[in-house]
């Protein structure tokens, strides 16, 4: 949905759902996601519908992703780091209570 | 335990930076927390990275953005301690701040607190506003500032307001085709705004800047539709097209990215969580903390400056930040009342002048009727996926206020804590019950206002005790 | 001229339950609520429907109440989100295991068999993910939890369907006894009825004093935390023998954490503030007992105001000072489960002059002459 205007000055590699992709130092995780072919970051807990980052300023909490093994990080506020592992979040399993 | 800081500032935008520079110059032991990785706030986001590493992007972002360089330089040089990447998740009446950064959660104690947390873009609910491919205009602009990224799919703008036109123009300058600007504004808005025009002209170059923008957009032949209503974003997994009504007919248009904007509203999350006293500010249809002319709230030691006290824009925010710093210096015993008045005088004049533009802008770009009273099927709470219809039903069942609606429907209970639904819920209840929004009130905001993990809470380093 | 047969002061769960139980027996009821229905404890509550570990005096009431809970949705024609997903109390040391045994022996000796001892294997089966330190505990299968605000509204709406009138935004300021009638003075004028019910929660002591029954009560802010939604992993509500804990997964998937840590009550504004040392302790308990919870986000913390008594059980029953007045307040942090039955008891007392359940232990004058401090007026 987005593309970079220029080659990054300091390129680094992060892993999105296991696939290596190039990021620039200073990018937020959500920016890298939005420059990838699939902008979706998660499925919602209530209906399982897809979401992508919406506000890019830490307000909407739509950009929640699993980053380095921790769920529900605000991807628009987390700067990338070399080797970072980023995952799209599936919908939590809504099994019924007995 | 005694306070670690004289002054704690939350927010590193124009207001917070300007306040820190002044406060530090008076020898106040000052700390500034901001959750962004670099100073600048929303308007000057990533200004150092652009100026230093991507100067090619400066011309697109325009001369206004460039003005941030000097502000940030002055801030970097001052003696205030700067804590980037640090979220403030709590503030108490005792002036204890809960903060969290990569190292964990802590409580710090200050003698005086200045909140400069800025604004957020007004939530604009419409069918499909949660689809991937719908973002705020500010979000896309933030990507340009922070990462030098531009849309590579057909862009449709929806809403109104200066920021929307500014970013449409920036995209056009950068060679990104803009399919259309779908403006909810009506001719009546011009009539309503006209009486405020002379004041706005006196405020500075606000009106001239607006006209230049419009001309620029015309030169780029971007179609502008006005009086748009019944807007929808359509698609399954992401936006494919939009539908809207204009001139009595329904139109469809292909779109890969919908950029929404309907002005900005004060970010009151922290002041509401304490809580400080707030008032409904009718012209902007939003809450703002009640303050005296120096930014003091009703609670001793808690001050606000900049857009979190009511929208005034970046230039007004700089002056408000300085004014607040003079007052903080007086309260902390560094200035007498007379000294404060003398020193603050030029900033107070300039601040008032900038605010003269607001009534005109508020009247010209009011939120559209569809934004204030969405259809029953429209989602209002993005986190918990609660529709306008469910909220209205809860009101009819006896959930007569925002907190009752919240308990009943879970609207406002998700991680955003009502930032994206609070204003709409207040408007809907007000309309349902025939009350004024101030009589309806808003959610009680509970800490942590930024999420904290169980482990971070368990490891909370409480230096205040 | 009477405005109703019965005036109920307080529109929390207990006021609404009493209103429903009276109105459904054709009594004309007027509920006066200072704010809005469910403003205080009854919406802040953790919603635990628990018999496990109750004070012996409360057990008969709790046993009768659970019967009602299991058919409450039908009775009220609304979904209270009650789930009988069980309650567990965990022991982590041999001493705590002994205490579990003693407790279960006690309830047996009183003639009840709802509490059962469970060993480590059974505990791990019920509560997967619990830390290895857990040794066993007590389990009550048919207990569970429900949605407090929805339950309160369900009682209110059912009461209104039976003709009860609920007035919100009416604060009771003074109460006078005239011949065969109660005059209730409020900020919205005067109301009269021959019978009065005090269901004013943490403010029940104030209202009791207006009637002439000064009793020791104090308002307490009980703190809670709730996390982001998780995949379903926990059925029963978990408490602890040795620590302050109440831990459950709500219907929506969020984890609701409480256990009795206290914040501060601001009497003037009726607001609360949180004590972070307490929240930290609460978070420590959770992360020690459930190590996988460490990375889960806390989304919101809050505190709700509840009335407490010196012996940690409520005031239920007739006034000592005056005829035709009844109390039902100060539930000491565990009145949610009792909501359905205590409303029924109050209705029985009013209509039949007696209750079939033993309520002697809850009488309003039990501290008379004991020197227990009177703190009815919480605005001090
Ligand atoms: C997305 C967006 C784009 C904008 N673009 C423009 C523009 O191009 N031109 C223009 O004139 N105006 C713009 N505005 C309006 C803008 O609000 C003001 O012009 C100006 O930025 C206000 O300055 P401020 O110092 O009051 O707040 P801001 O600049 O908004 O700064 C507030 C800072 O506080 C931080 N913060 C907030 N809450 C917390 C917390 N709990 N913990 C830690 N840090 C926190 C934020 O990260 C931010 O850096 C924009 C507003 C938004 C929301
Ligand atoms: C955080 C928390 C967690 C809890 N968890 C559990 C649990 O897991 N299990 C359990 O069984 N119990 C639990 N409880 C306890 C339970 O929620 C309460 O015992 C129960 O809700 C009390 O209901 P109530 O109607 O007595 O009080 P409230 O709901 O407080 O209602 C009293 C009402 O009276 C009104 N009022 C007061 N004074 C006046 C006046 N002068 N005039 C008019 N109106 C007046 C108030 O505004 C209020 O609405 C918990 C309580 C809290 C606070
Ligand atoms: S995109 Fe809104 S919080 Fe990250």
Walk me through what this model shows.
The complex is a heterotrimer of chains A (98), B (465) and C (380). Chain A is mainly beta and 98 residues long. In chain A, 6% of the residues lie in helices and 32% in strands. Chain A is built from one helix and eight strands. Chain A has a five-stranded mixed beta sheet. In chain A, strand 4 and strand 5 (50-51) form a beta hairpin. Chain A is globular. Chain A starts with a strand and ends in an 11-residue tail after the last strand. Chain B has 19 helices and 24 strands. In chain B, strands 1, 2, 3, 4, 5, 6, 20 and 24 form an eight-stranded mixed beta sheet that branches. A five-stranded parallel beta sheet of chain B has the order 8-16-10-11-12. Chain B has a three-stranded antiparallel beta sheet with strand order 13-14-15, with no helix packed on it. In chain B, helix 1 (14-25) packs parallel to helix 4 (68-77) and helix 15 (388-396) crosses helix 16. Chain C has three domains: 6-48 and 148-215 and 310-362, FAD/NAD(P)-binding domain; 87-141, no CATH class; 218-308, D-Amino Acid Oxidase, subunit A, domain 2 (D-Amino Acid Oxidase, Chain A, domain 2, 2-Layer Sandwich). In chain C, 27% of the residues lie in helices and 28% in strands. Chain C contains ten helices and 21 strands. Chain C has helices at 13-23, 41-44, 59-69, 72-76, 94-109, 120-126, 148-161, 204-211, 276-289, 339-352, and strands spanning 6-9, 29-33, 48-49, 87-91, 116-119, 136-140, 144-145, 165-168, 172-178, 181-186, 189-193, 195-198, 218-229, 237-240, 246-249, 254-258, 264-266, 271-273, 297-308, 315-318, 325-329. In chain C, helix 1 runs parallel beside helix 7 and helix 3 packs across helix 10. The longest helix of chain C has 16 residues, at 94-109. At the A-B interface, strand 1 and strand 5 of A face strand 8, helix 5 and strand 9 of B. Bound molecules: flavin-adenine dinucleotide (2 copies) and FE2/S2 (inorganic) cluster. One flavin-adenine dinucleotide is lined by residues 9-15, 32-35, 39-42, 44-48, 50, 171-172, 199-203, 207, 222, 224, 246, 258, 304, 306, 329, 331, 333-337 of chain C.
